[in-house]
Design brief:
3-stranded antiparallel beta sheet, alpha+beta, about 30% helix, binds coenzyme A
């Protein structure tokens, strides 16, 4: 439900999408590991960051640590400013993003209704 696009797609369509990103020089991905388990994912595609941590590993400080590491890596890659979208009804995520240094810069609309906050983070 955190994703901007919640349409249902087949596994194959998803694999094709992931493969297409291999050719995109502006796509970067990181898998978050904790105690040698894969627990989350952070991506930056065309400067837009998205993230997800498995439900049972949320609220343990993993996201805060992972964001801090990704910001350092993104800076090394030469990125300067990132954007992110957080749906207006996802207040926990918004609180998290604000704590990790993101600033609200606008609101995105869908069907003429406010839908997501647009955020920006300068590295
Ligand atoms: C948003 C998300 C990345 C945060 O990562 P996390 O590891 O859970 O966050 P942390 O444990 O580092 O928490 C940092 C802050 O976020 C907030 N927070 C995180 N989880 C929370 C929870 N379950 N309840 C309340 N606040 C919470 C708190 O403000 C917390 O600060 P505090 O510990 O000082 O109270 C993660 O919860 C997630 O993947 N959510 C689903 C997907 C999503 O919303 N992605 C972001 C949109 S792009």
């Amino acid at each position: 439900m955190a994703c901007n696009d919640t349409s249902k797609i087949s596994y194959l369509t998803h694999v094709k999408y992931m493969e297409s990103l291999e050719k995109n020089s502006k796509a970067f991905h990181w898998i978050i590991t904790y105690n040698e388990k894969d627990v989350g994912y952070i991506k930056i595609i065309d400067l837009e960051l998205g993230s997800s941590i498995k439900d049972s590993f949320q609220g343990m400080g993993i996201g805060t640590k992972a964001y801090s590491l990704v910001f350092k890596e993104a800076k090394k890659l030469g990125l300067i400013k990132l954007t992110a979208l957080v749906k207006t009804d996802r207040l926990t995520s918004l609180k998290f993003e604000e704590k990790t240094g993101w600033k609200k810069i606008g609101i995105e609309y869908k069907n003429k209704k406010p839908y997501a906050y647009k955020l920006e983070h300068t590295l």
